[in-house]
Design a protein that fits this description.
Layout: H1 10-22, H2 24-27, H3 48-64, E1 69-73, H4 74-84, H5 88-93, H6 100-110, H7 113-128, E2 132-136, H8 138-141
Parallel strand pairs: 1-2
Helix pairs in contact: 1-3, 4-7
Length: 148
């Protein structure tokens, strides 16, 4: 049975995700072909605020049932990495002079997924010893980071 989540109301999505993430199959990491379960919950841009509230409520509900959730925001990680390189102020001051191509080239090394983003996520997950990881901020960093 297919669950076309994009066509469901936010309360229906919430219930579906809560049930899925609390399931033994998910928590025991039994995906198709015994791969780690990896789920994407798509939503329309105009649903962003409501989805953010839903994600926060999911986290609270799951934690109350003993499921430890680690929340990772790609946008926050990106800003942190840029600030660590001491170029944040330069970017802010000269924002109007950069075009998309210039920014892409600048961020290519700073926000490299294998070198910086993934290790950062792994550190956050290992610090909290979680059962589930929620990755947000995906739209905010596109196209500078492609989260595929």
């Amino acid at each position: 049975m297919s669950f076309d989540i994009e066509k469901k109301s936010m309360p229906e999505r919430f219930q579906h995700l809560l049930k899925l993430i609390k399931s033994r199959r998910f928590l025991d990491m039994q995906g198709l072909g015994n791969e780690i379960p990896f789920y994407i919950c798509p939503f329309k841009p105009e649903e962003s605020v409501e989805m953010e509230k839903t994600r926060k409520n999911l986290t609270i509900n799951l934690m109350q049932t003993g499921v430890k959730v680690c929340e990772v925001n790609l946008y926050d990680i990106s800003i942190s990495l840029i600030k660590e390189r001491n170029i944040w102020e330069n970017i802010i001051e000269n924002e109007q002079t950069f075009n998309k191509t210039d920014l892409m080239e600048m961020f290519e090394g700073i926000l490299d997924a294998k070198t910086y983003i993934i290790p950062n996520i792994i550190n956050k997950v290992n610090e909290k010893e979680c059962n589930a990881v929620f990755i947000s901020g995906v739209g905010e960093v596109f196209p500078y980071i492609r989260s595929h």
